[in-house]
Amino acid sequence: MDELTAAPAFTLSLSVAPSDIDELGHASNIAYVRWLQDVAVAHSSAVGLGYARYVELGGVFVIRRQEIDYLRSALRGDTLLLRTRVCNVAAAKCHRETEIVRAADDVVLARGLTTWGYVDIATGRPSRIPDSVRVAFGVALRPKRGDFSAPR
Question: Which domains does the chain have, with CATH numbers?
């Protein structure tokens, strides 16, 4: 797999809304799942890869797997920092790490690892992630065989 070339994390700030709160008085698990997707979409848009651009490329990312470690509760009104980065890329999938941090005290509330699959929009079948997408996210390109001038 290609490794991240020291790409900085993308950060999105949000406040825990009343609609995020469950019967136990803290943010529901569904809110955390939504936040992981929201920060990934915001990061993608921030690097010039909004939905319209993906349509032009003929492919789009879909979630294949999501893992979340819930460490602490988020409460109504908390300001959260969602920090995310693409941590590695294979031919047709990538992994994205995300931390959800309470801004007031910098305590990590949750960590997520999401596997995103890149699929052809027309067929829904896996498709190779274009080099332009890798570059936009700051992911190193794999040198072509025999290309000894490419940086490693």
Answer: 2-136 (3.10.129.10)
What is the pLDDT tens value at each position of the chain, 152 positions in all? Answer: 333 344 668 999 999 999 999 999 999 999 999 999 999 999 999 999 999 999 999 999 999 999 999 999 999 999 999 999 998 899 999 999 999 999 999 999 999 999 999 999 999 999 999 999 999 998 866 555 554 444 44
Distance, in Å, from the CA atom of 60 to the CA atom of 119, rounded to the nearest integer, reads: 6
Pairwise CA distance, residues 127 & 106, whole Å: 38
Helix (H) or strand (E) holding 89: strand 79-89
